[in-house]
């Protein structure tokens, strides 16, 4: 096996091990893949309350007077949509060729402070890119990685109840917090965001307090959920995963992310020129497998307009059927059938609009 | 560790039970299902198919991953377990009850090449380090 000592640990590592988690090497992080049955964990989030350690993701504070101007140029969505403190925005950060360096969430704290949350596997690359732009554009901003923070996602229809019970006084915040908004409570930062298609929160807490907070959430009825279920939950919710559904070489316009690329104003952002010149020939669609089997990433999709590829595929515990996201040629509409090559067979799948599941309900 | 002493094993994590009539019943071990996690799809070999030792002959898929199952010895498939194909989670509940297929061995001598429980346990322990 690989060198275990080299793996990075979140502040909750010992907590996971105590609760019998099966740990795996996830992009250099020692993370829980499940605590027993991945499918049971999946259903728990759809029907109750699940807890996720997402401390491998990196919160990053950017401070300085021109921070808004910096982000206007840095990312493809428009941070001018953020006018109220605590408001969040999902965006891609593009390279000059229009490829996706990362997808991230941006929180508006105040006019000289924005907080970003970036993916674990891309954190170093992102930071290097942002520092390069900071220098190139002569912005003089301070970028501070916040590895002193842990991040816990509390997701599911009972998330509010569990958080209220675990954290006395938070009910005044949770009662009024709208989706994609955040609020500070002392040292904590509470956002109504998630990656499951359910109501819930992502809470940043000082690393040293994380194990106590986690235990309080468990006592309040939250169940630990591993990265395995996190993947099937986000797939059912039709949410992209960086590195699978898009990367440095793919356009957000061919990755189902056009809604996050804001070209309504003249705003000049990195990658815009390339996107405007590009010819869009592919689309990201949902697939529902009609035959028996399991769709997986990189399987070939055969359509009447040419070949495509599955970007993410798995078994949907909610639909009890295999589902996928796939990048296929334009001109194939929802309802049409395509074929997927699995081992030596060609299986039938139907193109569908995603999300597949939202708020506990199947949409397919 | 759940490795029954009365069964034989392969390094690729199949278990084999030698029946009184000389046929072999084959499944995947408790350790294998534990590595794979929740099973969602199983496809066994067709009855009548002739298998060579080590040939890919069945597929087990969990939510997480697909994995091939290999013929522990050469022989003819005499049955596949349709019950397990319709409810793959049986493999997670009891890997040694949820058999995948039965073979009539072509060469009884090959059975001696299978691992006993002690040898298989050593292999699983070595894998974990």
Strand order of the largest sheet of chain B: 1-2-3-9-8-5
CATH topology of chain B: OB fold (Dihydrolipoamide Acetyltransferase, E2P)
* Count of discrete structural domains of chain B: 1
CATH architecture of chain B: Beta Barrel
Spatial gap, N to C terminus of chain A: 41 Å
Please give the most extensive interface between any two protein chains, plus how many residues each contributes.
Answer: A-B, 17 and 13 residues
**How many extended strands of chain B?**
9
Please report the number of helical segments of chain A: 9
- What is the overall silhouette of chain A? globular
Supply the helix-strand structural class of chain A: alpha+beta
Number of helices of chain B: 4
Query: What percentage of amino acids of chain A are in beta strands?
Result: 25-35%
CATH class of chain B: Mainly Beta
Number of strands of chain A: 21
Compute the number of structural domains of chain A.
2
β-strand percent of chain B reads 25-35%
Category from helices, strands and their pairing of chain B: alpha+beta
Question: What Rg of chain A do the Cα atoms give?
Answer: 20 Å
Question: What level of helicity do the residues of chain B show?
Answer: 10-25%
Query: What strand order characterises the main sheet of chain A?
Result: 10-11-12-9-3-13
Structure description:
Chain A is built from 9 helices and 21 strands. With 364 residues, chain A is an alpha+beta fold. Chain A folds into 2 domains: 241 residues, Gyrase A, domain 2, CATH 3.30.1360; 82 residues, Beta Barrel (Elongation Factor Tu (Ef-tu), domain 3). A 6-stranded mixed beta sheet of chain A has the order 10-11-12-9-3-13. The longest helix of chain A has 14 residues. The longest helix of chain B is centred in the last third of the chain and has 11 residues. In chain B, 41% of the residues are buried. Helices cover 21% and strands 33% of the residues of chain B. At the A-B interface, loops of A face strand 4 of B.
């Amino acid at each position: 096996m690989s060198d275990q000592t080299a793996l990075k640990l979140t502040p909750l590592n010992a907590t996971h091990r105590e609760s019998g988690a099966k740990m795996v090497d996830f992009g250099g992080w020692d993370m829980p893949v499940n605590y027993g049955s991945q499918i049971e964990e999946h259903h728990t989030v759809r029907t109750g309350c699940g807890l996720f350690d997402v401390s491998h993701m990196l919160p990053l504070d950017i401070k300085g007077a021109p921070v808004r101007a910096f982000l206007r140029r840095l990312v493809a969505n428009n941070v001018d949509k953020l006018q109220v403190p605590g408001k969040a925005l999902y965006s891609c950060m593009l390279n000059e060729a229009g490829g996706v360096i990362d997808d991230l969430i941006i929180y508006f704290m105040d006019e000289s402070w924005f907080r970003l949350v970036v993916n674990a596997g891309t954190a170093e690359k992102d930071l290097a890119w942002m520092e390069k732009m900071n220098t190139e554009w002569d912005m003089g901003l301070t970028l501070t990685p916040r590895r002193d923070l842990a991040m816990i996602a509390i997701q599911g229809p009972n998330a509010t109840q569990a958080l209220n019970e675990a954290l006395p006084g938070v009910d005044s915040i949770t009662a009024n917090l709208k989706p994609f908004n955040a609020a500070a409570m002392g040292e904590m930062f509470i956002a109504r965001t998630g990656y499951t298609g359910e109501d819930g929160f992502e809470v940043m807490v000082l690393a040293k307090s994380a194990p106590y907070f986690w235990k309080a959430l468990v006592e309040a009825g939250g169940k630990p959920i591993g990265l395995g279920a996190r993947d099937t939950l986000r797939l059912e919710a039709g949410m992209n995963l960086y590195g699978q559904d898009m990367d440095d070489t793919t356009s957000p316009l061919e990755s189902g992310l056009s809604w996050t690329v804001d070209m309504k104003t003249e705003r000049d952002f990195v990658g815009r020129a390339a996107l405007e010149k590009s010819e869009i020939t592919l689309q990201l669609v949902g697939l529902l497998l009609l035959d028996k089997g399991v769709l997986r990433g990189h399987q070939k999709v055969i359509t009447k307009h040419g070949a495509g590829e599955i970007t993410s595929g798995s078994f949907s515990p909610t639909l009890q059927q295999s589902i996928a996201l796939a990048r296929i040629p334009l001109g194939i509409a929802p309802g049409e059938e395509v074929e997927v090559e699995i081992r030596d067979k060609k299986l039938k799948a139907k193109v569908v609009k995603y999300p597949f599941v939202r708020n506990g309900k199947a949409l397919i | 560790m759940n490795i029954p002493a009365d069964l034989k094993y392969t390094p690729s994590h199949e278990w084999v039970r030698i029946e009184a009539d000389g046929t072999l019943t084959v499944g995947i071990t408790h350790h294998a299902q534990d590595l794979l996690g929740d099973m969602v799809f199983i496809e066994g070999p067709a009855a009548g198919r002739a298998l060579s030792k080590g040939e890919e002959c069945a597929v087990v898929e969990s939510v997480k991953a697909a994995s091939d199952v290999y013929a522990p010895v050469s022989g003819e498939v005499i049955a596949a377990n349709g019950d397990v194909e319709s409810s793959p989670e049986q493999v997670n509940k009891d890997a040694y009850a949820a058999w995948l297929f039965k073979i009539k061995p072509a060469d009884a001598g090959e059975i001696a090449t299978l691992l006993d429980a002690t040898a298989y346990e050593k292999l699983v322990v070595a894998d974990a380090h």
